[in-house]
Amino acid sequence: MTLVIDDLVVPLAHFDLQVTATMGARVTAIFGPSGAGKTSLLDAIAGLRALKSGRITFDDVVLSDLPARARRIGYVPQETALFPHLSVARNIRYGGRHHEHHVVEVLEIEHLLDRGVTALSGGEQKRVALARALLTAPRLLLLDEPLSGLDWPLRDRVMQFLQRVRDDFNVPMLYVTHDEEELAAIADEVVKLPIQPHSK
Amino acid sequence: MTDAAIIWFTVRMAALATGLLIPPALALALLLARGTWRGKSVIETLVALPLVMPPVATGLILLKLVPHSVVFTWRAVVIAMMVMSSPFIVRAARVAFENVNPRYEQIARTLGAHEPRVFFTITLPLALRGIAGGVVLGFARALGEFGATILVAGNIPGRTTTLAVAIYDRVQLGHDSAAWHLVAAGVIVAFVAILLSEKSTRRRA
User: What is the rounded CA–CA span in Å between residue A165 and residue A129?
Assistant: First the structure.
C-alpha cells in the first residue's frame, strides 16, 4: 500500500502548493503550520481540487486520472460535513454498507443511528464521519485535523477510536495535523509541508 | 361564467404554469449559482426583466414571439404566467443553491455519488426551503397575473378569462359588487395557498 505523489502542483489562492512524496506507512502524518496547504493537499488527493500538474498514484491506480467518486478515498474533513438533513444511519450508509456492523461496533455509534446529526456532540460527529468514510471500504482514509474543536478529555477519547480504526481496519491513513503530540500518538511517518510557501 | 369557474380556471392555469416552470427554472438557477460562464450576466439580467418591465410591455413582446395558433388560448395564459413568475422562482432557487455549502456535495462525491445523485440527495433537499418560498411567490404572482395575460390571451369568457382579468372586466362594466366577490375569493385562495406552503416548509425544516 503505497501512495506516490509525483511533482504535484496545486494552485492555491496565494501560492502554488508543490509536493513530491511517497507514503507507505499505516498512518502518515502530514504536518505543517496553518496556511501551508494541508487541507488542499487532501482535497487534491480526494479529487476535489484541480491540479496544475503532477500525478497521484496508489499502488497501481493512477488516482489523479479518476473523478472523485471513482477514487474510493474515505475523507473525514475537519468540519465533518455530515449531511444535516439526514439521520446518522442515512449519513453513514450514503456511500455503502461494507462491514457496517463492525464499524458501528468499533466506533460505538449504535445508539446514535436514529438520531439527527445536528444534535450530536463534537466527538460523536467525528465518529459518525469516520464511520461514513469507512463504510465505503476505502483504499485510503484522509483525516483532516480529526481532533480539532474538541476539548481535552474528548481529544484522548477520539484518539483512542482513531487508534482502534488503525488497528482493526486494514486502511492506510493520511492524518493532517499541526500538533506534535498527535503525531507521537498515532503517526508512523511524517511528511512536512514547508513553512515558507513558494510564492507565485 | 360563475365566480367558482373563474377561480378554478385561474388556479389550474397558475398551478400548471408553476409546475412547468420548476424544472427549467431550477436548472437555470443551478447554472447561475454554480457556474462561471460567458454571457452569465446577460442571462441574469434577462431573468430579472419581467420584474422591472411593465407587464403590458412583456405581454406585447410575447404577442410577437408566441405562435398565432397559441394567442388568445389557455396556452397563452399559461405562457404569460410562466414568464411573469419566472424571476421569483429562478432568483429564490439561485440564492437557495448558493447557500448550500459545496463541501457537502464534495464529500458526497468522495462517497461514490455521481452528479444526479448528489443533486437529488444533497443539493436539492438542502435548498428545498428556499426554493419552496420562491415557488409560492411565483404561484401567487401567476394567480394575480393581468398585464401580460390580457395582451397575449385576451378576455374570452370560459377560455382565457382569469381572476385578475375578470375583476377588471366587471369594474369596467360597473358591476362593482360582482368584482368584490371575486376579490374576496381571490384573497381566500391566495391566503390558503401561502398558509399551506408555510406549513409544509416548516415541517421539513
Answer: 13
